[in-house]
Structures are given as structure tokens and as C-alpha cells.
């Protein structure tokens, strides 16, 4: 009885988890091996791996994979480097530090669509945007960011939103740092760069691994910023894997190919997650 009761109490949670995760996954696998176009639902039928082959051989596939890798790598690099810099900058007490921390963290709570619209119209508009006015002030021709530098524009938007998350994690990690060790290093004549290399960065190693792992998983599904600003263009210049799946599903109405692409994205995310979990585990064991 003592063993049976916990299992009974866990049954609703397990059933809910099953319905929420396993059933959609099975349906996605099913749709990925049949011909199922939303405009021609009566012509569905089993076609095996044709949807996977079609998705991988799509001319937009490899550009989207490259854009996804560039987007992930750039945003993670920017947020980790600037996040550490911001955390170190506001680690020492100063008047108004609490307000500064709130202001630094606030962009993370902005919805992705609102973030994209803010950058599209307020910052990057080539006519009345803030950056255009700065260019004009210095006598230069304003840059049409979303047309000339679409992927870079998306990277800037996403980095601005995820930078507070990284800074918050690093600020929290710095609170547990041994201040006596820092004072001893100063007394021994260590300058700030030496402290950064031998004390701060090793202490932040675990936090960096956590930030990279979480951002890597979530950034694989970046969609709202691309849809709201560049629409994946010009051409495929800012199309990532998530947006390519959207185009197959809701622009080409091909649920079969979109399901195959979704499973590819799930596989990619799981590979990245396993790699990062092992990395975090190694850091935690040190």
C-alpha cells in the first residue's frame, strides 16, 4: 500500500505529461511520412521519407541552417561577453545601483514581437529611426538595416532582449564570490586584468555554461523577430530553420514537409541540449 499510493498520486501528472508531449510528437511523426497538403487533404497517403528528402534538398535549407548557426553563435557570444561586462560594472556598490539593475533586466520581459516592432520602427527605420538620425547628424547616409543587413539586424534585436538574462545570471554568481580572495590578490599586487583572468572568469565558468545551454535551446526557435521585421528576406538572407518550417506549413500549406522539418529541428535541439548538459555537468564537477 505504501508503494502503491505514490504511484496513484503521480498518475494524473504523468498522464497530462503524456498527452501534452508524447501525443503531439507521435502525430508529427505520422504527418511527416504522409503526403498531406492543407489545400488538397483528399490526396493524402503514405510516402515514407519523401518529406524529409524534400525538406533537406530545399534550396533554402542550407542557407537557413547557416543563418541559424550564425544567429546562435553571435547572440551567445554577444550576451556572454557583454553580460559579464555589465555584471562586473555594477558589482561594486554605487548610488542608484538598484534602479540600474532593474533597468538592465527590464528588456528581458518585453515580448519578442514588441521587441521586434520597437527596433523596426523606433531604432532601425531608415527615415525617422534613432540610428538614421545619428547617421544624419554626422553627415552620413542612413543605413536601411532590415534590407542591407537583415541577419545582423535580427542578431542585434535578439541580443538586446537576451543580454539582461545573461547579466542577471552573472550578477547572481558574483554575489557568492570570495571577497577576501579578491582583497588578498590586490595586496599581492594583482591588477584588474589578472583578477579577471584568474579569479572572475573561473568563478563564472559554471554560470557561463548555464547561460549558453539555456540560450542555445531557446534561440533555436527564434521566429517572432524574423516574421515581424524581415519576413526571412531579402530572399533567404534572414531565414532560419524555424522560419523555413513556418513557410512550408503556412505559406506552402504542406503539413507533411513542415512536420519533417519540425522533427529535424527537434533532433537538432536535442543534440545541442545533450552536448551542453554534458558541458555543464563537467563544470559542476570541478
TrEMBL record:
InterPro entries: MetI-like, MetI-like_sf. It is a multi-pass membrane protein. One of its GO terms (biological process) is transmembrane transport. Its main location: membrane. It is found in: Cell membrane. Keywords: Cell membrane, Membrane, Transmembrane, Transmembrane helix, Transport. The chain crosses the membrane at residues 12-33, 69-90, 102-119, 149-171, 204-224, 257-280. GO terms for cellular component: plasma membrane. It holds the Pfam family BPD_transp_1. The keyword Cell membrane applies. It comes from the Bacteria. Residues 65-276 form the ABC transmembrane type-1 domain. PANTHER family: BLR7065 PROTEIN, INTEGRAL MEMBRANE SUGAR TRANSPORT PROTEIN. Belongs to the binding-protein-dependent transport system permease family. This is Sugar ABC transporter permease. It comes from Malikia spinosa.
Amino acid at each position: 500500500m505504501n508503494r502503491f499510493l505514490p504511484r496513484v498520486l503521480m498518475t494524473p501528472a504523468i498522464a497530462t505529461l503524456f498527452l501534452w508531449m508524447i501525443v503531439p510528437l507521435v502525430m508529427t511523426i505520422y504527418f511527416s511520412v504522409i503526403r498531406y497538403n492543407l489545400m488538397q487533404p483528399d490526396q493524402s497517403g503514405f510516402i515514407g521519407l519523401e518529406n524529409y528528402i524534400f525538406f533537406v534538398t530545399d534550396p533554402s535549407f542550407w542557407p537557413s541552417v547557416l543563418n541559424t548557426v550564425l544567429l546562435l553563435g553571435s547572440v551567445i557570444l554577444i550576451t556572454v561577453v557583454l553580460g559579464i561586462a555589465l555584471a562586473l560594472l555594477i558589482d561594486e556598490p554605487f548610488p542608484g545601483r538598484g534602479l540600474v539593475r532593474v533597468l538592465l533586466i527590464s528588456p528581458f520581459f518585453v515580448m519578442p514581437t514588441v521587441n521586434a516592432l520597437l527596433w523596426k520602427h523606433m531604432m532601425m527605420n531608415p527615415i525617422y529611426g534613432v540610428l538614421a538620425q545619428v547617421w544624419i547628424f554626422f553627415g552620413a547616409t542612413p543605413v536601411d538595416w532590415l534590407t542591407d543587413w537583415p541577419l545582423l539586424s535580427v542578431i542585434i534585436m535578439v541580443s538586446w532582449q537576451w543580454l539582461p538574462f545573461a547579466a542577471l545570471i552573472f550578477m547572481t554568481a558574483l554575489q557568492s564570490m570570495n571577497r577576501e580572495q579578491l582583497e588578498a590578490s590586490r595586496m599581492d599586487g594583482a591588477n584588474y586584468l589578472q583578477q579577471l583572468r584568474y579569479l572572475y572568469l573561473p568563478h563564472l565558468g559554471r554560470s557561463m555554461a548555464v547561460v549558453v545551454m539555456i540560450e542555445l535551446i531557446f534561440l533555436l526557435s527564434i521566429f517572432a523577430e524574423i516574421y515581424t521585421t524581415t519576413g526571412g528576406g531579402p530572399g533567404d538572407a534572414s531565414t532560419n530553420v524555424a522560419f523555413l518550417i513556418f513557410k512550408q506549413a503556412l505559406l506552402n500549406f504542406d503539413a507533411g514537409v513542415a512536420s519533417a522539418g519540425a522533427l529535424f529541428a527537434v533532433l537538432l535541439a536535442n543534440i545541442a541540449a545533450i552536448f551542453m548538459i554534458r558541458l555543464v555537468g563537467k563544470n559542476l564537477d570541478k
